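Weekly modeling sync, notes
Attendees: S.R. (lead), two postdocs, one rotation student

Agenda item 3: backlog of single-chain predictions. S.R. asked that every request posted to the team notebook include the full sequence so nobody has to chase files. The rotation student volunteered to paste the first one in as an example of the format we agreed on. Action items at the bottom.

Example entry:
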Amino acid sequence: MRIVLVGPPGAGKGTQAAYLAKNLSIPHISTGDLFRANISQETELGLEAKSYMDAGQLVPDEITIGMAKDRMEQEDAANGFLLDGFPRNVSQAVALDEMLQAASMELDAVLDLEVPEDEVVKRIAGRRICRNDSSHVFHVTYSPPVKDGVCDQCGGELYQRDDDSEDTVRRRLEVYHQQTEPIIDYYKAQGLVTTISAMGPVAEVTQRAMEALPSR
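Predicted structure, as returned to the notebook:
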């Protein structure tokens, strides 16, 4: 099973990708993991990507595409994979199609996780992180601490990351609408897209996603 997972920031793609990949026994390939692995291993692509990132520039598509290609050619991806964060734009989607065609493969499904924009802002802007341990995460609405601004686990100060501010979230949504959302129409033309509500408990969203996949 070869799947692309699409959705705005805050839709829960990472969470759903992990569950789906486990259920389907295929690797979860995320753009963030690709970059971290290539940079830490100091691969040629990783060093190139780091040079752009250190200069505050966007990493060119061809570097991201090269990392994805290398990862999809690994042995554990022979029977399929779940892509999360790639392709990020139509150019990357076209490159992915060309890669798969060259290997006599094709995508089985594109799952579009749908969340209202106001809910995205609420989910992300409500997050609070512990300054002592970033793995201690709370939410002002969904999982508030017992005492406002104080971590339940260690008593550390809770704060909102700059990336989680409402203004930043809305800018990230604009980028998503401009760059990534067009790939949904690209894949709709191929009859691959199923739109799934990402509202509700995680397990229910996973169930909807599993039911939307073609039978194997």
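Discussion: group reviewed the output briefly. The beta strands are 2-6, 28-30, 81-84, 109-114, 127-130, 137-139, 158-159, 193-197.
Action items: rotation student to repeat for the remaining queue; S.R. to check formatting next week.
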